[in-house]
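Example record

One chain of 345 residues, shown exactly as stored in the release files.
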Amino acid sequence: MRSADLTREIDRWADSGVITTEQANRMRADLPPEASHRSLIAEGLGYVGGSLVAIALIVISSQYWTEIGTAGRLIVVGLSALVLASAGRLTPPRADGPAGRLRAVLWAGATATTFAWLLLAGRDLLGLNAEEAMAVAAAGAVICASAFWAAHRHPLQHVVAWLSLLVMAAALVDLLPGPDLLPWAGIWATGLAWGLLSWGEVIRPAHLGRVLGALAAVAAAATLAQAGWEALLAAGTVFALVVAAVALRDLVVLVVAAAGALVIVPAVTSAYFPGSVTAALATLTVGVVLVGAAVAVARGRLGQANGRLGRANGGTTPTPAAATAVAAAAVVLLLSAAGILLATV
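Predicted structure tokens for this chain:
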């Protein structure tokens, strides 16, 4: 129901004596503001303008890229980043509603174009090789995305900062000699650390952070799933996420873990038990465990709802220790760095 409809209902209740005038005023104050047509039009125009900027960049890069030279390329991409960042800065600083969405999209585009500018500058201006230019550009994107996220606590800024950090982790590991899949170990460690920091509510919103961390860890583990330590890492990741999802009553993290299990478990069992009935039995066991975990999460979510009702009547809720989360994330990153360095020897 729209806020205007609710306002009319509140007025009718107040006129008929169902609620007092003071109660009606409090109820009206709690109603969410409705987005005006002007805000929606401005949001749509902003999206169209951003799309035109992207189309112009594609046309220039496909037809005139070599003709405009290094300076021209840097100017075009740099001005695009500046325009998008400035437009986002001039947008009203609301975290929700059309203005908030528009600012989030504009600053996401500004982060992407800043990354592209740094990549061009590193390769064409500084003479860096592809790996070095990627690392420099990713580090700059992390700084840019983090600044935008600090200024605008929107979920899209959260996702852009997370993605930028994953790219930087992979790019830094790629600078080291080693197997081609080694950068995925950096993504795995970064995703796991992100999830731990979100569990400790160092990164907020915590639920979105946990889901993003689980996605990164599962994607990296599935890519690394082979015979050897990679298979143990992949299987351990899925197991740990299932346990964490049950403990936190987080159904979305459990779904991410289940999706990873669909890829990782057959790969691991086939690597260790090729052509054996053990592989099928192991897959069956994992399936049964996931069903049990889903039931536990569903029952736990019901318990959480009852717990919230109890806390509303005067109870308290425990919060995870941020210091523990930071320490655990630091241990994960240090051990992962040591493992990556050993893999390069």
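Notes: The mean pLDDT is 81.
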